[in-house]
Amino acid sequence: MPASAGRRFVILIVDDDKHTREGLQRALRARYDVRLAEDARHALEALGDGEVDVMLTDLRMPGTDGLELLRRAQALHPEVVCILLTAYGSVETAVEAMKQGAYDFLTKPVNLDHLDMLIARALRSRDMEQKNRDLERQLDSKYGFENLVGNAQAMQPVFDTIRQAAPTQATILITGASGTGKELVAHAIHRLSTRARGPFVAVHCAALSPSLLESELFGHEKGAFTGADARRKGRFEMAAGGTLFLDEIGEIDNAVQVKLLRVLEERVFERVGGNETLTADIRLIAATNRDLRQRVQEGKFREDLLYRLDVINIHMPLLRERNSDIPALCDHFLREFSEKNGKAIAGLTAEAVNLLSAYSWPGNVRELRNTIEKMVVLSHGDRLTARDVPANIREAVRGSAPGLSWGPVSLGEGSLAEAERRKILAVLDKQRGNRTRAALELGISRRTLHRKLQEYRVQGLLPGGAEQNGSDGGGERDFPS
């Protein structure tokens, strides 16, 4: 581990020769905390407390030699940097030492300036590896598969497709309305893929003009256009060995579509203004909130490019189509923003969750996330209550179901499922059992309404009732009052 504030790096010197041990100690003790061991047994004891950062060990020692000590040390304490010292240096021994995990290999007599430089470089390298591991953990925490919160039936096809498609090299098209979490899905696919150690490079196509987008994607040569003062790599080069994510791909113009099609078909491209043919070693994931097939019919999107993009399709449902996931999403965002803002908030009350679950969320998961952040920042107590729910949401919920008595600012007691069930029954009662009109008022599809009735086992509204053959049942009530 890196030396914490107030603690110097610890160097363990292992050598059966007393003069060598003490000589190296004198050379290093001004900068490091130096510990000594005369053989492998004492070295392993010294490593036991987990404080050693670098181990310098002689190769030839009585009993257990330096290579065997290296193997044991690596197995027990893989974070320790190991450097071998020997008077019998050879290329073969050096290669074997490196294979076993040694950072480097020095011959005796040791050049002390070189040793000092080597230790400093080894510690920087070790700390950089630790930072990379920490970054990977942070990325997993933010973008890992487990952060795709949801148990609703509408999300199961999403999870199933991610699991199947992520380990492949197939191009993926993610569709769905704005705010449904398309980029989060792209990140999760990358983290689960064989390219996870490569870069994840995102381009938001709608934010760039056609000429800028072409240069952004493919790069340009010096002098390719006014202002091109130097060669610049494009995103295809930057994403080499990893994943390139093109968001809002339905907005790119025809010229860029042609070039993109060539990359997908031949895996080659040229920089703008250049003649050198480059290979595109990337996995492409694209996303859109547009109906690309309609864009094809309108002549605004190439049909052949659509087929190349839409090898695997993942469609993200609207938040109102996965209403049962709202409590889990609220908890997830609450933890995120409580930690980020230094707030000790234990959770949300049932009334607050019920209010949030009754809202239609036109901005989908993004709007819910922003709402929870606002509630956390402006909160006063240790729990978020219905009074913390933004006024516009409370008013929208009241207005969406005037037949229900919401109380001053809450839905009252009871579980989320029961609150949703009561709301559905109230709207159906208002519409005299007509499911088509009820679905319109609830802001959900007729199919979603039917599924909800199945989930809550509302008798009389399932197949076999007045609507079994597609009739809306006239004005007749077909559910219990």
Tell me what the structure shows.
The chain is of the alpha/beta class. The chain has 3 domains: 126 residues, Response regulator (Rossmann fold); 171 residues, 3-Layer(aba) Sandwich (Rossmann fold), CATH 3.40.50.300; 136 residues, Helicase, Ruva Protein, domain 3 (Orthogonal Bundle), CATH 1.10.8.60. The strands form 4 sheets. A 5-stranded parallel beta sheet has the order 2-1-3-4-5, with helices on both faces. Strands 7-8-11-6-12 form a 5-stranded parallel beta sheet. It has a two-stranded antiparallel ribbon with strand order 9-10. The C terminus is likely disordered.
Summarize the structure.
By secondary structure, the chain is of the alpha/beta class. It has helices spanning 18-28, 40-47, 66-76, 91-99, 112-143, 156-165, 182-192, 210-218, 235-238, 254-266, 292-297, 303-309, 326-340, 350-358, 364-377, 391-400, 416-430, 435-442, 446-455, and strands at residues 10-14, 33-37, 54-58, 81-86, 104-107, 172-175, 200-204, 243-247, 268-270, 277-279, 283-288, 312-315, 347-348, 383-384. Helix 13 crosses helix 15 (364-377).
Properties at a glance:
single chain, 481 residues, alpha/beta, Rossmann fold, Helicase, Ruva Protein, domain 3, 5-stranded parallel β-sheet, 19 helices
CATH superfamily of the largest domain: P-loop containing nucleotide triphosphate hydrolases
Structural class: alpha/beta
The main sheet orders its strands as 2-1-3-4-5
Overall structural domain count? 3
Shape: extended
Count of beta strands? 14
**Any idea of the CATH class of the largest domain?**
Alpha Beta
Could you name the ranges where pLDDT drops below 50 across 5 or more consecutive residues? 401-415, 459-481
Helix segment tally: 19
